[in-house]
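Input.
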Amino acid sequence: METSVSTPVSQTDITIRPVRTRRDRKRFIDLSYRLYKGNPFWVPPLRLDLSHTLNPKKNPFFEHGKMQLFLAEDASGNVVGRIAGIVNGMHLKKYEDGNGFFGFFECEERYETAAALFDAAAAWLREQGMTGMRGPTSPTLNDIAGVLIDGFDRTPAIMMPYNHPYVADFLTRYGFERAMTMWAYYVHNKYVKKDRLRRGAAIVHRRNPGLTVRNIDMSRFDEEARIVLDILNDAWSDNWGFVPITDAEFARLAKDLKQLVDPRMVFIVEKDGEPVAFSLSLPNINFSLKYLPNGRLLPFGLPKLLLSTRLGGIHDCRMPLMGARKAYQGRAFDVLPVLETIEKGPSYGYYACETSWVLDTNNVLINLLESIGCVVDKEYALFEKSL
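Output.
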């Protein structure tokens, strides 16, 4: 982890200092569990997952990027805020725009603390030669990213952020401007317009002979994951802010997803036997993770997790990834995996699905989702400012 930083920043009675020790990192991780204690909608991340994300020996992001963590302490030495300054080497390689990032931001409801944290991250990014700051990304757009703007009275879906309402206000007050708006669309089996989807799918098949849809084969998981990565990096290459996922990053992601994925809810579209599009939906395990307020599976968390899953069940899913190769875009191939997800999901116990996030500029997908009865459930945003 990058440790070359300028002198600690102080503002009023708040001191900002870089994370340097294992104890510092533990206090960095601990903060959110205290700030959201008692909040019925916040879902505690697993501490081990977060620890691995921040560990250069565990997270392949550090093969091309660097990160500096900061703690905000009050006059008594209590941690009251945190932030990370982030340099994403893959982003700079693609865009050459001088943008650094910030992430993992949490703060007490006090603007002076937030401003001091932003100051520290900005100062560190300037030292790295950055001319802009965007975020939050923790640490990349392919991880948990964005600020919740609307939807605070609902639990976020798996791998989606949750924050206090004052966070967006602190960002704009500091001088950040909204860089992009993202939407979470939600649909329940009871209200989805399946007939419209079926008619659309029939037209796609008629215009494109040789199309088939299949599930992934878990016995060839590594090969199937490689197919999905190849389609994803091609399909999303022109999307705002998208950075290709490196082989090492995808290997880590695939390893994590293999434990969560329901292969019946992952669909690959083939044209004459060639994979050309896909969708991936994950069981929304956040319902069960809420029963782990301290983010620990052991010794008591795992039994609670299993019990909550058995008693309440997981009845919805989230579709975080979907796309078609650029050569086949504009042919509405995405209708096919969407139809498969909606038609087959209820037989597997999934009665609702969140598609998130959807860029505000993705009019094609927005029109498709709204035409079949999906509604906006939450609003998110990314912010940026010049350094």
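Confidence is low (pLDDT under 50) at residues 1-8, 297-311.
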